[in-house]
Amino acid sequence: MSDLVKQSAHDHEGHNHSISADADCRYLWLALITLGAFMIAEVVMSFMTGSLALLSDAGHMLSDVGAIALALWTIRLVARPPKGALTWGLRRVEIISAAVNGITLLVVAGIIAVEAIRRLFEPPEVDGGPVLIVAAVGVAVNIVVAWLVARANRSSLNVEGAYQHILTDLYSFIGTMIAALIIMFTGWVMADVIASLLVCGLMVYAAWNLLRDAGRVLLEAAPKGIDLEEITEHILELPHVQRVHDLHVWSVSTDLPALSAHVVVDDECFKDGHIPQLLDQVQDCVAGHFDIEHSTFQFEPLKHGAHEYHTHP
């Protein structure tokens, strides 16, 4: 192994980045079956009552079912071991799944918003009684489903994406209940349309959060809470370290941060065999202070700077 470069790829015993796939799948399957059954009943009731809010709930619930199904499939893909050119396996699929969930929320919100705006000019007749009953059942169902999904590993953006779908659906049903009560007591059917538009707003907000977090990973930005200047300061405090440059921190997936850096050290370190000890110290530093256990360091003598190309601060 080179004296200059050594990687701490997977040599930390007991360290395991994998999510609890069996537990997550069990909770997600229960949530999927519960939502699927209620979604079918809700579609039927929306056509019987003429409620757009109820139909928007059903449309959102369809996206919930798809989100959970996607989360289940993603968990299976992520669990596959690295192979060939896929040196990290399929861990990044988790982030793609979250992005798909965010885009789906935006699409559903757009469809509902268009129909809601049309109904502002052509208000339909809405039977508030059945809408109230279905919405009340929907609140109960979504509370159960939200609890089930929350029991899974929500630190994964994949599971968080499904959870956000369900949470906004719960708010949607609450809005539908309020709209139904207003219609029953006042006859003001526009409450149904306004409830739908409010639900759209919640969908857009949830979608923005998912796409923002997924985008950070896909653009290989430093994970939240990681300060590159602070990492540099910690490394510079170690003996024999003169300078740190080309420091990069990114996330392969939500639970797998990685780091690489060039570390300039005293020339004597390459003569007295001190590099292995220094490598241990640097790795322990970033793992202990910043919880980054996948790190690669290139150690350089002072004179090596003349041979660096396109250095990064």
UniProtKB/TrEMBL annotation:
InterPro entries: Cation_efflux, Cation_efflux_CTD, Cation_efflux_CTD_sf, Cation_efflux_TM, Cation_efflux_TMD_sf, CDF/SLC30A. One of its GO terms (cellular component) is plasma membrane. It is found in: Membrane. One of its GO terms (molecular function) is zinc ion transmembrane transporter activity. Gene3D superfamilies: Cation efflux protein transmembrane domain. Residues 223-301 form the Cation efflux protein cytoplasmic domain. SUPFAM superfamilies: Cation efflux protein cytoplasmic domain-like, Cation efflux protein transmembrane domain-like. Its main location: membrane. The keyword 4Fe-4S does not apply. It holds the Pfam family ZT_dimer. Residues 28-219 form the Cation efflux protein transmembrane domain. NCBIfam families: CDF. PANTHER family: CATION EFFLUX PROTEIN/ ZINC TRANSPORTER, RE54080P-RELATED. This is Cation diffusion facilitator family transporter. The gene is zitB.
